[in-house]
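Protocol step 4 of 5: obtain the predicted structure for the target chain.
Materials: sequence only (see below). No template structures provided, no constraints applied. The aim of this step is simply to have a reference model before the mutagenesis design in step 5. Sequence pasted as it appears in the construct record:
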Amino acid sequence: MFSSLMDKMSDAFKKFRNKGKLTEADVREGMREIKLALLEADVNFKVVRDFVAKVTERAVGAEVLESLVPAQQIVKIVNEELIALMGGTAAKLNVSSHPPTVIMMAGLQGAGKTTHAAKLAAMLKSQGKRPLLVACDVYRPAAIKQLQIVGEQAGVPVYQLGDTVKPVEIAKAGVKNAIEHGNDYVLIDTAGRLHIDEAMMEELKNIKTATNPSEILLVVDAMTGQDAVNVAQTFNDMLDITGVILTKLDGDTRGGAALSVRHVTGKPIKFVGTGEKLDKLEAFHPERMASRILGMGDVLSLIEKAESAYDEKKAAELERKLRENSFTLNDFLDQFKQLRKMGSLDQIMGMIPGIKPGDIDASKIDERAIDRMEATILSMTLEERVKPEIIGASRKKRIATGSGNTVENVNKLLKQFEATQKMMKQISGGMPNLKGMGKLPGGMGRISKAQQKAQKNQKKKKRK
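Step 4 output (structure tokens):
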């Protein structure tokens, strides 16, 4: 995500870092590099012009030129202006004071409306809401079936009246059905076209009039760059949208759409699609996106991903096992599965401050390593998983054959587990350097009774 733009922005900032004091000429030369980086990222020309003018105006002031660390001041200004460019703060969904809240999904065919309607429904359901999906795309072959499939995967009901009823009538009936069955959100999946035409816009306007939606979310493909911005502007002019969902942002190395949509339409990006699975939908946070673009990471999103993957019951069970020193290979595997829920390893790495896409060779991040590890552990007997010390040469050979692996990889796994087990024992036993940290949840970091007694004796000696 944004890897090309990140690299070019980083190169532009180097021009500032190499100088202890900056002149106005230095600033303008550096801003020329930033301007080129944004244009190459397919950011709208007017957006680039306004952005560079604002940053330059601030950067040639006393705030930067008289600063002891001018390079840092410029990065700060660029960061602040990027945040403002993308909307300043995260925009939340508009919620109706009289349920249900109607959300109308619009966009061109192929942008991902149907999938993202289900993604948004799944997100709402995870927040304790009761959403209903309404199938109003009666033109595209199998569109209704697709919505039913993704709706079932999301665990959300789908209302449909087939492909012979007019979309406006289906939308009205869907809202009525939601009221009768206590659904607090209605997501209307409308039809798209390969291009914007009069018939499509007229139908969308009719659905809008009939259902009075609280939200009209335009779904656009971030990979199309400048075209995505043009589509957003046209839809906004004709329909007065309330927000945008950018799809395929994980594959957008340039970032032009994300940086242009808000400025051009005046409407916020509310969500971004970052993958094909139903849980790959994130609320759009301008400050976090600016941080990523400038190579400063996105720690808050990383924490949120960790929290969403966190399983309280498993965590409590793990804490018990740590106290009892009964950490097994099954537990070892569980920890990697929890990590995997957070997303791909390269995505996670991209959120860590100071790590840019070019810093990590993607070919060296072997996503299949966890698959091989799982296959190896599952090829062991229950006794072997609990007591790996009984695994001798013949057992290793059997495990390797059963998992389609090598004995060398089995040995490597057992060594990794042994090292992890030792570390877990140290944590559960209470290492001396954890003494000042107080009591951590679940007993982690507590000192033993013997250590407590020894500390009391030392204090008595000092008093004497």
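Step 4 remarks: Residues 432-463 form one domain. The two ends are 65 Å apart (CA to CA).
Proceed to step 5.
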